[in-house]
Amino acid sequence: MTTSVDEIAGELRDLLAEVTGRDELRFIPAATALFGSGVGLDSLAGTLLLRQIQRRYGIDVAAEDLNLDSLETLGTLAGFIADRI
Amino acid sequence: MPNPVAAGPVVKCVVWDIDNTLLDGVYLESAQQPPPADPVLLGVVRELAGRGILQAVASKNPPAAAEYVQQLAGLDFAATECGWDSKPEAIGRIAAGLGVLPGAMAFVDDDMLERAEVTAVLPAVLVLTPEDAAEAAGWPQFSPPVVTAEARRRGQLYAERRRRQEAASAFGGSRQEFLRQVGTRVTIAPAGAADLPRLHELSVRTHQLNSAGHPVGADELARLLSSAANQVTTVRLADDFGDDGLVGAAVLAGNGAAPGPAPPAMTVPLVMMSCRALGRGTLDALLAWLCRTAAAAGATKLDVPCRVTDRNVPFRLALAAVGFRAESAARAADGRTVFSRPLGGGDLPALPDYVVVSPRPVSPPPVSPQP
Q1: Do B314 and A48 touch (CB under 8 A)?
Q2: How do residues B225-246 score in pLDDT, each as one tens digit?
Q3: What 3-state DSSP class applies to B335?
Q4: What is this model's ipTM?
Q5: A68: which chain B residues are within 8 Å (Cβ-Cβ)?
Q6: What angle do helix axes B196-205 and B218-226 make, rounded to 10 degrees?
Q7: Residues on chain A touching B171 (C-beta within 8 angstroms)
Q8: Which residues does A contribute to its contact with B (CB < 8 Å)?
Q9: pLDDT digits (tens, 9 = 90+) for B289-335
Q10: Which of B176, B267, B174, B170 is nearest to B224 (CA)?
Q11: pTM of the predicted structure, to 2 decimals
């Protein structure tokens, strides 16, 4: 059985809330931008998020995605992970 | 009599990483003969143990690694956590087992990301680099009678940081809102000759947030500072909890103030930032300022060559957040990957309102803090 993009997005919301300490991020839509005016992910929180992703899914996003385009939105990141598990 | 409250609570337990911290190398990489101890840090372990401070290890290694270090140190650790769990989990188990609160614990690790993770999950823990730990025996947190003014200042910086982290974890809003709430002040100013020693120190001591990937010599920094074709810029950071002093710098090549037309693309040959500034809006502010300054000088594109390693992911995240991208084939002459951002189209990154741009060098404080 594979994990769906929606399920991964749900898990990522929890990870985001954890690394930023902001519970409201558990309810953001998949199209929310992770940088800038969306989540406003900074380099520290972003690094901690990528570490959690590596621990949970065994995927090193930074090693596979030079420009970190996968971090555009919550949905693109979930899709990037779903394609690799 | 120094006031221990001002410097933070006295540390009752120090948790040490093993690889490249207590050992001068990686335990599992040398199956025949494990690496020797770091003599300075092992001396600190013995000294602090002699003061009654509990010593523990948390390491991503088999338990034999802890036994090996214990033999080298000639003392028993109060707790050992060897395994592949996260460091905050390991520290949490040590705290529970020894009955010590996180606020009375210190954690020493050479890996910036391990330190960042412990800082985020356990903000009350005093998190130190091996360089800091080497002199921590002189800090008030580890010995109530303060030894030197410098040690007092350094211990003070960490106490400020612990209070800031506790406030951050209690704050519900966004990081930007928190930075405003605590009165963050980022000052961007041209480097002056008086900044040279600190710039050189940053160049030697920042590894993960350094785009060059290697230290830049004092002579080269002095040359850059006196060259009209390069603009050397410093970043200072302070907030209501304390003043961190000069935490970062960048070099912008192709000075807009120099005679002649500006080149279409300007380059940033060096960005360096103390990891203490991570998560405090400082690197983003510096990158935004570089984009805006290059654009104002007439450049249509800004290039930032960067050595891509598995440890400078925070730097790449900051580049991505302000819109820099690399063609994987785009390499500088020295082999670095070139991250670029177009400067036209009116979508320049905004300078946050807590950034002050000074037209003149800012005098360094009497005691310069370390990264």
Answers
A1: no
A2: 999 889 999 999 999 988 888 9
A3: coil
A4: 0.93
A5: 316-317, 320
A6: 130
A7: 21
A8: 19-23, 35-36, 40-48, 50-51, 55, 60, 62-63, 66-68, 71
A9: 999 999 999 999 999 999 888 778 889 999 999 999 997 777 888 88
A10: B267
A11: 0.74
